[in-house]
């Protein structure tokens, strides 16, 4: 039986998959295992012979395969990441097909899903390998654009298969690797099917946070800001799985694929541009359909929201590009019908569509209707949002819910009758169920003041009428000057600045002060931030608590950080505990609590009877220790030793002085005795020297007596020498 290797075009068609395949649900599927095996099929005799091999040979074969994988990983990582030719194993003269072939062969060996014992090394090697292929693309080749075949990080055994086996490591057995017999025998079981999975709740919330960026990327593939946000969300999902306890298998994990999304967006945009120039381009239409199917298949496998899809457009219908391009800006109008930027973009889309219609009047017509009915959309959104805001404050307001549903149904009928996308309607139930928190990552990307201070929320109230008779509103914003200190200030809209005010009110993740709900009591975890306004006679205090549910493993789920007034927070904390929470947060960061909060506390905690400033650290430390006197005893002992040394020094000085005096008296007595024994001439009379005795009445000090004795001894000595 002859076998012919598939061409690159055939492989691309296989990887795109059928567009009308059946959807199945499976917990641990083989990702995208929907293509036929690329290797030549074996006849029944050869399969039976292969099944009769002994177990020892299979084990040796597995060991050899594991060694080959380890060697392939080490060969890639043994060098620099920018040595693309070395990593891919090709030369500068290699063709595009040879580069792709080399990439597939090495990808079979180093993919993380095939190296469970060393996932980190395998992941790094696989990233180096993929980056090398992208850097070595030949832009002059006539092969299809590699962007049409985006390479994701999830494993698909047939994605890198190749029919040629004349090079090392290219045999078909290496693709099986460490997979068990059951997986090998069921390769074609889920062929031509799309596997559907559901993401965990924490991952769903990450998906929701990045939905606006994904939609923006699908419309504008070159938007680096949206792509960066998607990559950050991708890292958050990886971190979630790293910290998950107990861990889950790789087959159960879901994820974002930023490179895949960008590649699909680029290709679909290129095909739409071709269809604008030539609506009869069958090849462009087929590629666009393949991108729709590819995104839908990956979306089902990774549990992505259903809104992450390419627009379901009718290629033969005029104005398809207009409705497709309008998607992101219509989403902005849903949140803020007065968004000036979105209105301007939609008006530009309408003008471009009308110009195209005039230029191709004989081929296409818009039937007298605008491509995007901006004013009608704004009216519907403004009316529906008025009832939705009531439902957010009062979820049991049945009248508001029915009215919103009725208007939305009317809106859907209008969209259907005029061939507009149904996605332009508002899903009221999803909005009401969206109680997810605004995460810190989303919060950090929110608009800031001109000084770079973080805006954490706002409150608005009616404040009269404008000249045109429209309602006028006043605003108060919660601002956090220092990210490291959770004590912020309340600032009016005029002090915040009109530019920062407009940006925050148009921000998708804005946080408005809300009232206390009964369900908040069981979900309270801690108080995270406090915002105060203490100037003037009227004080205002807002708080931002952490509300969440705890899972069976103790992890926080459904996290929410609402903004409340102090009055509403006291209801949540059942009274005085709310004020204690505020005071404790202040003292934790070494700050004085506001007097209007301290006044509500008992007398022993009031600022009138007790200092709100915490003790110094040294005093606090000493108070927490045992009351011993070791240090004090040591100081007293040292003082006693110094006093004793001074006293002993004085005693030694007195003893020395007494010895000197006695010695002088003895010398003087000896000299007097010597004089009396000598014969002296008659004319010479010798007068003995009398040593004066000290008495209490004598004013001469002891030092002077010693000096006098020494002087007399000197005179007597000179007299003896003269005789």
UniProtKB/TrEMBL annotation:
<dbReference type="InterPro" id="IPR052317">
    <property type="entry name" value="Viral_replicn-host_int_reg"/>
</dbReference>
<dbReference type="InterPro" id="IPR001623">
    <property type="entry name" value="DnaJ_domain"/>
</dbReference>
<feature type="compositionally biased region" description="Polar residues">
    <location>
        <begin position="675"/>
        <end position="688"/>
    </location>
</feature>
<feature type="region of interest" description="Disordered">
    <location>
        <begin position="158"/>
        <end position="200"/>
    </location>
</feature>
<feature type="region of interest" description="Disordered">
    <location>
        <begin position="35"/>
        <end position="69"/>
    </location>
</feature>
<feature type="domain" description="J">
    <location>
        <begin position="83"/>
        <end position="141"/>
    </location>
</feature>
<feature type="compositionally biased region" description="Basic and acidic residues">
    <location>
        <begin position="645"/>
        <end position="668"/>
    </location>
</feature>
<dbReference type="Pfam" id="PF00226">
    <property type="entry name" value="DnaJ"/>
</dbReference>
<feature type="region of interest" description="Disordered">
    <location>
        <begin position="645"/>
        <end position="703"/>
    </location>
</feature>
<feature type="region of interest" description="Disordered">
    <location>
        <begin position="592"/>
        <end position="624"/>
    </location>
</feature>
<protein>
    <submittedName>
        <fullName>DnaJ (Hsp40), sub C, member 17</fullName>
    </submittedName>
</protein>
<dbReference type="InterPro" id="IPR036869">
    <property type="entry name" value="J_dom_sf"/>
</dbReference>
């Amino acid at each position: 039986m002859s076998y012919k290797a598939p061409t690159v075009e055939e492989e691309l068609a296989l990887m795109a998959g059928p567009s009308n395949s059946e959807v199945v649900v499976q917990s641990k599927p083989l990702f995208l295992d929907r293509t036929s095996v690329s290797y030549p099929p074996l006849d029944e005799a050869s399969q039976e012979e292969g099944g009769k091999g002994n177990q020892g040979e299979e084990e040796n074969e597995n060991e050899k395969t594991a060694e080959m994988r380890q060697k392939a990983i080490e060969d890639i990582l043994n060098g620099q990441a920018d040595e693309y030719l070395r990593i891919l194993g090709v030369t500068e003269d290699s063709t595009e097909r040879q580069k792709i072939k080399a990439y597939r062969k090495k990808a079979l060996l180093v993919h993380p899903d095939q190296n469970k014992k060393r996932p980190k090394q395998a992941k790094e090697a696989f990233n180096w390998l993929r980056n090398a292929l992208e850097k070595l693309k030949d832009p002059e080749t006539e092969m299809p654009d590699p962007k049409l075949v985006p390479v994701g990080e999830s494993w698909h055994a047939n994605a890198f298969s190749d029919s040629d086996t004349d090079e090392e490591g290219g045999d078909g057995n290496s693709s099986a690797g460490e997979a068990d017999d059951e997986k090998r025998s069921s390769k074609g079981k889920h062929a031509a099917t799309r596997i559907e999975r559901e993401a965990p709740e924490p991952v769903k919330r990450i998906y929701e946070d990045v939905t606006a960026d994904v939609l923006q990327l699908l419309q504008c593939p070159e938007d680096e800001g949206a792509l960066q946000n998607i990559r950050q969300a991708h890292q958050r999902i990886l971190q979630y799985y790293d910290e998950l306890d107990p861990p889950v298998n790789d087959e159960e994990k879901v994820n974002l694929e930023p490179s895949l999304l960008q590649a699909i967006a680029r290709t679909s945009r290129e095909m739409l541009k071709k269809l604008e120039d030539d609506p009869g381009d069958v090849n462009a239409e087929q590629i666009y359909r393949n991108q729709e199917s590819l995104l839908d298949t990956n979306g089902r496998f990774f549990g992505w929201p259903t809104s992450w899809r390419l627009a379901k457009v009718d290629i033969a219908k005029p104005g398809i590009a207009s409705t497709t391009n309008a998607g992101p800006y219509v989403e902005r109008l849903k949140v803020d019908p007065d968004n000036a930027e979105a209105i301007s973009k939609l008006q530009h889309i309408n003008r471009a569509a009308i110009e195209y219609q005039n230029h191709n009047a004989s081929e296409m017509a818009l039937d007298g209707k605008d491509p995007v009915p901006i004013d009608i959309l704004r009216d519907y959104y403004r009316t529906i949002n008025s009832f939705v805001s009531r439902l957010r404050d009062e979820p049991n307001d049945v009248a508001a819910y029915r009215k919103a549903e009725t208007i939305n149904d009317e809106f859907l009928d209008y969209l259907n009758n005029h061939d507009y996308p149904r996605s332009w309607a508002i899903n009221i139930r999803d909005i009401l169920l969206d109680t997810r928190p605004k995460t810190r990552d989303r919060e950090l990307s929110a608009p800031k003041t001109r000084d770079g201070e973080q805006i954490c929320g706002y409150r608005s109230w009616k404040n009269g009428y404008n000249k045109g008779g429209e309602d006028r509103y006043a605003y108060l914003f919660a601002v956090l000057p220092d990210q490291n200190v959770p004590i912020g200030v309340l600032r009016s809209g005029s002090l915040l600045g009109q530019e920062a005010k407009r940006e925050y009110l148009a921000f998708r993740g804005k946080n408005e002060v809300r009232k206390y709900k009964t369900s908040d009591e069981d979900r309270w975890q801690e108080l995270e931030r406090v915002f105060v306004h203490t100037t003037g006679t009227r004080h205002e205090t807002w708080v931002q608590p952490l509300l969440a549910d705890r899972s069976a493993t103790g992890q926080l789920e459904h996290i929410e950080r609402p903004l409340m007034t102090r009055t509403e927070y006291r209801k949540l904390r059942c009274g005085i505990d709310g004020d204690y929470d505020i005071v404790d947060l202040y003292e934790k960061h070494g700050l004085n609590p506001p007097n209007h909060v301290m006044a509500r506390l008992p007398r022993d905690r009031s600022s009138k009877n007790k200092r709100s400033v915490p003790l110094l650290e040294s005093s606090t430390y000493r108070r927490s220790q045992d009351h011993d006197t070791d240090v004090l005893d040591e100081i007293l002992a040292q003082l006693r030793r110094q006093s004793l040394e001074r006293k002993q020094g004085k005693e030694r000085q007195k003893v020395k002085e007494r010895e000197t005096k006695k010695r002088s008296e003895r010398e003087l007595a000896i000299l007097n005795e010597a004089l009396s024994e000598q014969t002296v001439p008659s004319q010479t009379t010798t007068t003995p020297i009398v040593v004066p005795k000290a008495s209490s009445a004598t004013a001469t000090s002891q030092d002077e007596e010693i000096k006098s004795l020494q002087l007399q001894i000197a005179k007597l000595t000179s007299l003896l020498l003269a005789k």
